[in-house]
Design a protein that fits this description.
Blueprint lengths: L6 E10 L5 E6 L5 E2 L2 E3 L6 H13 L6 E6 L4 E4 L15 E11 L16 E7 L13 H11 L45
Parallel strand pairs: 1-7
Antiparallel strand pairs: 1-4, 2-3, 2-8, 5-7, 6-7
Length: about 200
Amino acid sequence: MLDREGFRPNVGIVLLNQRNQVFWGKRLRTHSWQFPQGGIKHGETPEQAMYRELHEEVGLTTEHVRILARTRDWLRYEVPDRFIRREARGHYRGQKQIWFLLQLTGRDSDMNLRATSHPEFDAWRWNEYWIPLDVVIDFKREVYQHALTELSRFLPRPAQADRATRRETPHREDFVEGAPLPSQPKDAAAPPESAD
């Protein structure tokens, strides 16, 4: 399902733990790390698609998370031709996404990367909210930065009692200074995008 400009409607998910760290998933059989995301099916709302993708990719359900915010508008990225399946070239340009900020209300042990027969990730980890985005495939970085920036004003404040033992919520200026995920090789190939 593409819009008139060739963009596929999609959702992105920023999942927080109680320390305002974000979930990063490692794409199956690659060195590429990303947030959960996926297409909106015909007849689905962005929220319905978000919950479906959250279960398919991370194994969580509505009882494990709470919605804190979502982006106001669609955020778009274009996919380079070399990453587009041959049959989709010419009419598929990329993704347009609504991003959701979720708070994990369950436990880490509730996550299941094998919740479906077609897993997206083979590993995951928590990292600081403001983290260098060099591990994200280059054509998605601007959308990630925009989504994180827009959603950052909805980050929960750490509980008063926990402030002595936890680092304060990272600020925008920490973005470049944060501890990086394992680096993605410069020539790492992304799996082909599809217009499905």
